[in-house]
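Minutes, project check-in
Item: structure for the 169-residue chain
Input as provided by the requester:
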Amino acid sequence: MTETTPYDADRARFTRQAPARLVLCDHAVDVADGAAGLVATEHDPDARPGGRVSQAVQLLELTERALVSAVIYERERGSSWAEITQYLGIGPAEAEKRFAAKLAGWDTAFDVPYRLDDTGRKRIPQLPTAAYDPAWACTQLDRWAGNRLILVDNEHPVSSGLVMAVPKT
C-alpha cells in the first residue's frame, strides 16, 4: 500500500526495536492489570463459582501474549535464539518454530502496516496499536507507569529508554 497514514511519520522516528518494546510494555500492562483483578477479595461473593479460575486462565492467555511480544522484542534487539531459549526450557530450533508465525506476522505488518476493510475505505492496522501509533503508546504507557510504579522517578519512564531512529538528513 502506497497511501500514507497520519502515524507513518511517528513510526519513522523509532527503530523497529522501539515499537516492539512498546508492544511488550502494553502487554505487560494487561498482565499487571489482570493480576491485580485477582488480588482484592471484596467482590468474591459476587463471583460465580469458578469465576476466579476464569480470571486466572485469562491471565495465562495475557501472559502468553506478553511472552510472544518479549520474543519479538528480543529478536528485534538482536538476541539469538540460544540467548532467548535459555529462559524457555526448549531448544533454539523448537523456539524458532514455535514463534515463526508471530515473527513473520510482525515483519509483514511493518511492510504493510494496514489493510483495507471489505468496503475499501477503512484502514485496519496490522501492527498492534502500540507499534502502529507509538507516540500515543508512549503517552499512555508513561502515564500508566508513572501512576503505578512506586520507585520510578522519571517523567517518561517508558519512552525515555526507547531506541530512536537516527534522523534522516
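Outcome recorded: The chain has one domain: 8-161.
No further action items on this chain.
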